[in-house]
Amino acid sequence: MRAVYATDLSSAIDTAIDSRVCLKCLGRYGIKEIDLITVTSPNVTTGMPGSDIGSRTKKGLERQKTQLESEGFTVNTHVVRGTPHRRINGLAEQVHADLIIAGSRGQSPLKQRFIGGTVKNLARTTVSPLLVQRIVRRDGSPAVANKHLFQRMLYATDFSENAERAFEQFKRTRTATHEATLLHVAPPERRAGDEKIEDAEERLESMAESLDEKGIETTTMIREGEAVEEILAAENEIDPTTILLGGRGRSRLRRLLLGSTSEDVTARADSNVLLVPPAR
């Protein structure tokens, strides 16, 4: 399996790539080959007199490539110009990537353009499952929020076709996932005894049984209210390492491709997010 790993060569991304635990989790997911990509602004000219941007970029990529190779991955590097999320998606389509990985925060001068804006745009447009890895600051230095990427999963479902597609990710994370919580958020007007609530309970239990058979300790949860707020409330209670959810819609309008729930959860969650786009 192959992953596209987006990097802005910042110390934040260095932290994620230097984490042997994180890399082992990717290995257990099935990733063997990584395409490391950095996107430079089309307004930056590496050949300008006195400019060392090209040299610094090359050194940064080689440093990260060496670290990934030391953990057994086959690594290809790419330096491209343009709009980050478009070039990342373009590479993912070109190499038929099984996963796109992007850090959610960073300390580079391109923080808002790459780490903030790029992840937001990838959440709208990703062509492959997108792993958003949370990088936080601890004691003044960047740190990975959750090293064990898939250890405790919070799966949110509305029982749509793409939510079911997202559930299939457990086939890839099963050797790395120890615990899972399956969550359905019902509209507030529904109450216990409602046929739809009972149907949701039965469907969650059936899904839980299939995970229990894989050795994953699984619980189910139904909450009432607004989807984003309830997913984030469940995250606060459960403290998962990763939230798993599917996007919705097939609109050609990129803003609508994955829908507001998945975008908002990706933007606001403290955990990692594994976001699965609709089938193409």
From TrEMBL:
Residues 190-217 form a coiled coil. Keywords: Coiled coil. The keyword Thylakoid does not apply. Residues 33-132, 150-277 form the UspA domain. The keyword Coiled coil applies. InterPro entries: Rossmann-like_a/b/a_fold, Universal_stress_UspA, UspA. It comes from the Archaea. Signal peptide: none annotated. Belongs to the universal stress protein A family. This is Nucleotide-binding protein, UspA family.
